[in-house]
Amino acid sequence: MHHPTPTALSRRRSSARRAAWLFSPLLLAGASVWLLFCALTSAYADLTPRPPSLRGKGELDSPPRNGEEYAPSQANNPTSLDPVPVWFSSDNDDTRSVAWGDIDGDGDLDLAAGNGSTYYGGQPNKVYINADGALQLTAIFTSNDSDATSSVAWGDMDGDGDLDLAAGNALGPNKVYLNVGGVLQPTAIFASNDSDDTQSVAWGDIYRARAQTAVLARGSRIIWYDFTYDHPS
């Protein structure tokens, strides 16, 4: 049996070290290219537009039909808007404005509907709750009053962390419905003294006071409603 001499073993070790020295830069370069590819792929995924989610916890997979639950899964990039509605309310109203907002703080987006018009008459405004990704068919909130509402918007009027609902009305007072602990009150806590043809309403924290004021646009002017303070005596 032939055994390699010490000189032959030394030559083999030297050749192995030279080979490792030659291939090390190639291995490092390959690893760098792979890491760069992973980083670019991750960045592209972050920048790729995703469809909105009713759940607030994931993306939509296939469009569910009326009353079915939105299950979060891997997003399918949409190419066009599905002409078939995925949800419709059980009641028929003359809806002029809608707005998404988490009324109960569960992380799911609920839907407010501003109803009524000067032509068909005033109607109550409504809110449809989102129960764990399934938008309910029957409204959980119905305002006590019926107005010709042209615009609705969510905003935290009193800075308590709950979204309150502003309603811009045509030919009637503009109103705000207060959210108390996740429950929207059916009677407006605020009604403007003037009656205007309001077309749009928006919230903003102009004072950085963690409480938002309402700005409304009507036919001829823009009106700003400020909040009031309770001063200690």
List the SSEs and their pairings:
Blueprint: H1 6-47, E1 95-101, E2 110-117, E3 121-122, E4 126-128, E5 130-131, E6 134-135, E7 141-142, E8 149-155, E9 164-177, E10 179-180, E11 183-184, E12 190-204, E13 213-218, E14 222-225
Antiparallel strand pairs: 1-2, 2-3, 2-4, 4-7, 5-6, 8-9, 9-12, 10-11, 12-13, 13-14
Question: What key attributes describe this structure?
Answer:
single chain, 233 residues, alpha+beta, five-stranded antiparallel sheet
Overall description:
The model is unreliable at 46-52, 57-65, 69-75, 213-224 and 229-233 (pLDDT under 50). Strands 1, 2, 3, 4 and 7 form a five-stranded antiparallel beta sheet that branches. A five-stranded antiparallel beta sheet has the order 8-9-12-13-14, with no helix packed on it. A two-stranded antiparallel ribbon has the order 5-6. It has one helix and 14 strands. The chain is of the alpha+beta class and 233 residues long. It has one helix at 6-47; strands at residues 95-101, 110-117, 121-122, 126-128, 130-131, 134-135, 141-142, 149-155, 164-177, 179-180, 183-184, 190-204, 213-218, 222-225. Helix content is 18%, strand content 33%. A hairpin with an 8-residue loop joins strand 12 and strand 13. It is elongated, with a radius of gyration of 30 Å.
